[in-house]
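Homework help board

Subject: predicted structure for assignment chain

Our instructor gave us this sequence and asked us to write out the predicted structure in C-alpha cell form, then describe one feature. I got the C-alpha cells but I'm not sure how to describe them. Can anyone check?
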Amino acid sequence: MSGDVEKLRFPLPGGIPEGKPKGRILIIDQDPRAASLLEAVLSSQGHQVDMGRDLSEAETLLKGLQVDLVFLRVESEKESFLQDFGALKDSDPMVPIVVVGPVGETDLAVTTTRFGAFDYLPEVFESEALATMVDRAMSEVYRIRANTRMMRMVAESKLTSEPLGNAPVFLESKTQIAEALGEGGLFGVVEEAGSGARETIRLLHERVHPGQELHHVSGQDVHGVTDLPFLKRGKAQGHWVLHATESLSRRMQGALAAWWFSFDEKPGGEDFSLVLLFQQWEGRIENFKAFHPDFAALFRVQQCLRYPPLRERRDDIPLLATEALMEFTEGLTYPGFTPEAFLLLQSIPWRGNLLELRTIIGKAWVISEREPIGRAQVCAASDDLAAAFLPEDVELYRDAESRSVLPFEDEERHILERALIATEGNVSRAAELLKIGRATLYRKIHQYDLTRYRKRSSATMAKG
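My C-alpha cell output:
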C-alpha cells in the first residue's frame, strides 16, 4: 500500500472538512492597518479570519466561536503584555497563540514562547513563512482536539460500561447481540480470534441483565457432559458463555443438542441465556453441523451472529488505539497521536485484531519516548509495517534520532531501557508493554545490568 497518507480513503476524526476554510483565525490588534494586512494574507491562504481590538473583545469572541488560532500583537510593556497573554491563554488553553511583535526582539520571542506562545511572528514577515507557521499550528490544534475527543469518548465508555466503537458494522453487531441476550435462550456468536467479542458480550450482559453474573465455560475445560453445569434436563438457569473451541467434541455437541431439545418450552428471557462463542468463521459452524443432525437442526432454528474483525471497524481504530495508549500511560502524561498516525493505523489490514493493535501501540509509545506518536513511530514498531508502508519515514526517524543499525544486543538493551524508563521501573508493566514474561525481563535486566532502572519496593528501600 502506498505510503502517501493524503491518499488514504479512511476519514480522520476531527479532520478538516473538504470545501471549507482551513481554519478560523482571530487577530487581536489595535492597529487597523496592520490587522487588515495580516487578515488579507491569511484570507488569501484559505482561512476564515475574525478581528478584535483588545483582550476583552478577544475573550468574548473565543467564547462564542470555535477559534483555531489567535494572533496577538504586543501593545504594552513586557510585564503587562505577559499578564494579558496569560489571561487570554487561560480562557481557552487548547487554542494556540502566535505573538506578533517588533523585528529583532529575540528576548521577547523567547519569553513569550516559554510562557506558552505557539510562535513569535515579526511585524515584517514573508507570506510563505506565515503559511508554514499557520499550517503547523493548525496541525497541532486539530491533533490536540482529536486526541481530546478520543480520550473523552473512551472515558465515557468506561463510565457507562458501553462497548467502545461507532463503526456501523460494529453497532449493528452490538445491537443484535444485546437483543439476543435480552430474549435469552441459546444463540451463537462467530468471531475471529482476538476481535473482542467476549468483552462486548460481558458489557452488554451487564446492561441487559444488571446484577446477574455471567459465567464462562471453556470447551478446553470440558471433559464430559457433567462438566457443563447447565446440562440438566428440566432446568436451565443462569447466563453462560460457552467458548466453543475445537475441543468441543462430537459427543458434547450431541449432548448439548439433545439437552436443548428436551425442553418443551425453550428457556430464555431474564432467567437463562447461553452464548456459543465460536472463534472462527462460518466454515467452522458448517463443520459443527456436520457432526450431529440435532446440532444442525439447532443452528437452523437459532441465531448465529457475526462479530466484525478489526479491519472492518476502521472508523473505530482511533478510539481503540486511544484506549490502549491510555492504559499504557496510566499515571503518566498522555502523548496522543498525530493525524498521520491515526490515518496509517486505519489503513493497516489487521489480521491479529486487538492484540496486534495493542502490541503496535505499546511499541510505538516506547519508541516515541513520550512524544506524540507519529506515523514513523508506528512503522518503526513493526518490521512488516516498515517494509510495506513507509520505509522512507522510518529512515528519516532513525536519522533524526542519530541511530544507525546496531548489534542486536545493543538494540535490545536500548529497547529495554526505554521500556523501564517509560514505566518508571515497574517491571510488570514493562513486561506487559514488551509482550514478554516477567521472568524473561528480570533475566534480561540482570544480563544487561539494568537494575538501576528497576522500581525499588518500600521494603527494599527500608533495608537500604
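Reply (TA_rk): Your C-alpha cells look well-formed. For the description, you could write something like this. DSSP finds 20 helices and ten strands in the chain. That's the kind of observation they're looking for.
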